[in-house]
Amino acid sequence: MGPVGGHMVVQGWFGDYEQALGSGAVILAIAFDPFVQNLIHYYPKLVVDPTGTAIVSSNSIYDALGPPMNIVGYYLDPAMKANIYNSLFNSDSSKPWSTPSSDIRADTRIGRLWGTPFVIGPVPPGPSARPFIYTESISTPIQLIAPDNLPTSEIIFSASDFIPKWQAMECSIDPIVRSFRAKVSRGLYHEETLAISNNGSFPPGRQDDKYSLYPPWGPEMGVGENKEFVIGKRSLKAIQLFFQSFFSGEAQLNPQGFMPDSNSSTYANQDLIQLLTLANITDCTGGMAKKMHCAMDNVAAAMTKAIRDTPSRSNLSTVATGHAMTSMTHVSIHWQWIVLPILVWLLGLVTLLGTIWKTRKAMVPTWKNETMPLISLYRNGHNEKPKSDEVSETERVKLYKSEGKFALSG
Asked: Where are the transmembrane segments (predicted)?
């Protein structure tokens, strides 16, 4: 069946194709509103705000120092020391001493042994003691020997032959360079790590000099070509001395209580041992080895924040600039939803044009030149509706013939 047959069917069912098209337009117009509502969508989107400011700390040189210790060394920078102490002795679960979403972790290895007293300390140089895992660490590796779980007070007072399981751990904290993308969304700061590099070295033949890191990146990671990140010679020595003094000591648990050794230390090593044995560490549960692991994680995060936030004496430009974003309403047009409105409009247009054409063909008077619709329009201000079975006002009209056509005239 072709177009002619289809047209005949429509005329057979509806009598006139203009009426069929008009009826179809009215039926399709029922779904007009949902289509129009889905045509245009409004959504918020972030755009760059040229009047805003976005900065984050970014330090490539760390050379901060504390007071002089002696003619050859310095104490640790007070800001870093306070941040490290805060990371260990502060139970605040929000961790104000760390950078949000930090990926910094202390690397640790755990082994098991029996019957050794609780000892924590640095690995001293020399053949008598050496690191087992971190043989090339630039910081002082820390070793821990302790029972996996401390015996209860009842066991201690009963003087039983209880032999706990012991653990040995070796930890090291070394510097890295981390490329990250920072953003603040709904008042929350978040960092996305892009890459991490530990490509660093001392100057040739000078292990007691500054330590430099050279990440193999470019501007796509936020650094320039051949960018150098440096830990100053004296600052590195102060960090090493801090680790040797703070992470050292030994203690015993006996019926008399917690008994640390009496050796004096530059830093609060006895407080650290008491923390690992008797206290709680933020977001950390478990035995001694687990606590030590958490403690080193916290120390690494605290050192990271201190290095990032401490301006260098030789480089005061310690911020990275970004883009401040603001939310604006955008308009999205889904053109597939305009099909039905266009179809309804076309059907209505075709119906109108067809009606005009057939009206002229039949020489039917249109509204603008037909008198009959206007007969009752003006009735001297009387617009009352006639009562039931009551004849309305009569109007006198004249039927006349003009150019072979009959028309009414008032």
From this structure: 335-357
